[in-house]
Every structure is written in C-alpha cells, then in structure tokens.
Amino acid sequence: MSTLVGMQLSGRYRLDAQIGAGGMSTVYRAFDINLERRVAIKLLHREMASDSDQLERFRREARAVAQLSHPHIVGVIDTGEDENRPYIVFEYVEGETLKDRIRRLGRLPVDESLAYAIEIARALGSAHAHDIVHRDVKPQNVLLDAEGSAKVTDFGIARSLRDDGLTADGRVLGTTDYVSPEQALGHDVDGQSDIYSLGVVLFEMLTGDVPFHGENQIAVAMKHVREDLPDIQALRPEVSATTAAVLDRMTDKDLAHRYPDVPALVADLEEALAIEAARSGTSTGEATAVIRTLPARTQRRLPFRMRHSIPLLAVIAMVGVGVALIAILAKEGVERTDSGTGPGRVSTPTPQGERIVSVKSGSPRDYDPLGDDEEHAEERTRVVDRDPGTAWSTESYQAGIQGAGKAGVGIYIDARPKVEAVSLQLETPDPGFKVTIYAAPPGSVPDTVPDGWKKVGGGTVNAKDKTFKLDTDGTAYRYYLVWITELAEGASDAQISEIRLSQKVPA
Fold first, then answer.
1. What is the mean pLDDT of the segment spanning 253-261?
2. Where does ATP bind (predicted)?
3. 2-91 belongs to which CATH class?
4. pLDDT digits over 138-149, tens only?
5. In the chain, which segments carry CATH 3.30.200.20?
6. Would you say residue 343 has pLDDT above 50?
7. Measuring CA to CA, which residue among 481, 435, 427, 423 is closest to residue 454?
C-alpha cells in the first residue's frame, strides 16, 4: 500500500504519508487540495472492498461517526470512493496516541490519568447516546492533540467485533488486552463493555502496563473472563481509595455491579479527580484543563487557588483589603475541612496515618450460619457503595437476636487477597447495637463463629459514624466480619450503610 503515497483520491486528497495500518484498512496523512488543509484518510484495502460484508462495515463506520459531533471524538469530514477504493476523510489530529504516551513516559500522573479517562468517557457517552458502542476502546485508539486533549477514533474494528465475535475464520480482531469478559465470550455487548475496556485503559495509565499477559490473545481474553485485575493500590500506593473503588466498579465482571452507564461513571471519575488534586494540592498536564470543566459541586472539593485563576492586578488590589482576604480564606478553610478528601461521601475522616482499603463492589457477604444462611443478601453491596443513604439490614427480630435462638448475625468484607487492617469504620442510621469484629485468613470462610475466626475488635456502635481499632497482631487477613450480637434498645433490626477498612500508610 505504500505505493499509494503521492496519489490523489477523487482529484482532491493527496496522500502524503502512511500513518497507520490494520487488517481492513490503511490510514494516511493527506492534504485536501480544495480547502488547503491536512486531513487523515482511512482507505479500505482493495481485497476488502470486494467483500460485501467488509464494505458494508466500512460504510457503516462512516455513517455512525458522521452522526457524532463532540470535542473528544475525531470527526468525519467526507467519504468517497476512488477506483473501487472506498475511503473516509477524518479531521487530522497532530500529536501522539495515548499508547505512545504511556510507552514514552511509563505510568502517568494519577490526576492526568483520571483527566484522560473523563475525556474518553465523555466521548463514549456521546456515542452511546446515539446508540453507538465503540467496542474497541484502547489507548491506541485515543489521539492526543497539540494541546494535550484526548480524542477517540477508530469505530471500525469495534463494529466488526459485534458481528464476528472475538474471532472470525481463526483471526483475532483487534487486541484482547482491553476486551470485556462478555465480549471475550462472544456475547452481545452494550455500553457497559466500553466502560470495562476504559477501566483497563485507566489501569494501564496508572501502572504503565496492561493487567494481563499470556501466551496468546485468547489466553489473555480468558484472564479477563476469570481473573480479577491486580490491586491498583498495591501497584501504585498513592492512588486514593476513591480512585481504586471507581476502577474496581468499572472492571467488575458482574454487569449488575459494573457502572450501568457512562453518566454515572463520569460523575465518579470527576469526584475522584477532584479528590486526587486536593490531596496533592497541584494538577498536572491535561488535568489542569479538565478541572476547569468539573461541576461546581465537585469543584468544592478543591482548594480555593485551584478553583479560581486570579490575575496579578487582582492580587495587587487584594493587598489593600487584607481583612476581607483573611475572612475569605478562613471560610475556605472551613469548607475544605467539611468537604474532606476521603473516598466518596465519607462523613468521618480517615484517622491520621491510615488509608482506606479498596475492596471490590461484590466483596460483602451476609453471614447467618445459625439460621438459613441468608441475611438480606440482596442488600449486601450497599455497605461499600459509598452512599450513606443506602443500607444493609438484618432480618427483623422482634424478640431480639438471642430470642431467635442465635448468638448473632452479620456481614463480612472480602479484602482479597489479604490486608493487615488497623481500623474498621461503620456508618449506620440507627446506632445502639453491639458488634464483635472477627477476622479470618485466606481460604474458605469459617462455617461458624467463633471457630476459625479471630476476634480483633468490637463494642457498641454508639454513634452514626463509629470507628473501631483492630488488633490483628501484625497478621494480614482476608475476611473481616461485623458480627451483630445485640440490637439497640427497642429495635427489631440493625442497619449498616457503610463499612470501611483502613490500613497503615506505607512508610
């Protein structure tokens, strides 16, 4: 195909250089002679043009992307055909791909990674609103322009995955490094598949590498089906629990636990970016631009100086009103103290020298070994959803737990693979009940209490936000059980809205 460099398509587009190639098409930097501007042209291979199915996919890509007008999507300018060679004309983006940037720099700054994830998510949200699922989200398909802004491109291979599944005639279409579990299994996919793939991209930006490697692409795809992504905080300790929780939910293999749509994801990514920027006190690269686009409610997490750009003359003028400035800064200090920088909507700050442990959204399990083995199982994920407005509750015990012939009931967190937790924080709308906190090592969950469990803490939950110090004797455990032994006076059940484990911040 290199011999095509120098030729003109339809007497208008001069092919200047080949800048990309795939199994279906080749991409060229070209020059639009009529409008005197650079463009990018995707030219379908001649042998593909003779295949009616491939030709239709190519045309469908042009029609699909032509519907989209978004600052973070590479736009379609024109389509045409020259001597039975169909082509699509795109805006030309001067810069590098996100993959190139990761290869060049290794892992990216945390706030910059989140900023790119937000821009890509916003682009995918626009596509999903037009009933278009990308299906091939990867850093190779994200272009970074001269200003550093991300632009999503290449909807072509992605759409062929919908028709052919993961493989066709023994050929793997696209890379499996970012494939969602349902896509790897050949199932129909929707926008949640794009969210999973974007989660893998975010993981790569934060760590500098994809989560799974294997002997071939099928082996990698099956790891996406069967294995959890490595713990991001173990690989990058400075990542906040909020960011880790968002990443976990993006890449949850259970569609019921994964983000249902892009708007919900974007809201949490924006909050995570604000938290990371507030923690560091600075912003880097594209994060600086994205921070200016955050909703006002999210920007309130940021320090005053990061929310407002103050010109030099304004600063000079403010010198004359020092009293007012002090009042403003004092008020700002109160706002920052109230807002905090912890994960999600945490109302009690994490103790000094500790950080919240990131756990999977599906990690909580109700525990009723002396009853029917279920204790409102459908509510269990609420204790880690970072929403104090939702809660898991025990069943109703009018005569108390002991009156039902039970020593207790509870709920435990699977902190896989294991963690040496130093405190456990409970939020509840109705305090007054008593708990014992147990821990158990990796392996099977103990069948009864206390056999197999080690008592590490407990007491009365005498406040809506209660933190218990844990005595693990330096041992890392996988399971942490909140065992409710006595209900509050006059209550027939106990409710827990949030459970958070904390560990020491590494030296």
1. 94
2. 42
3. alpha beta
4. 999 999 998 889
5. 2-91
6. no
7. 481
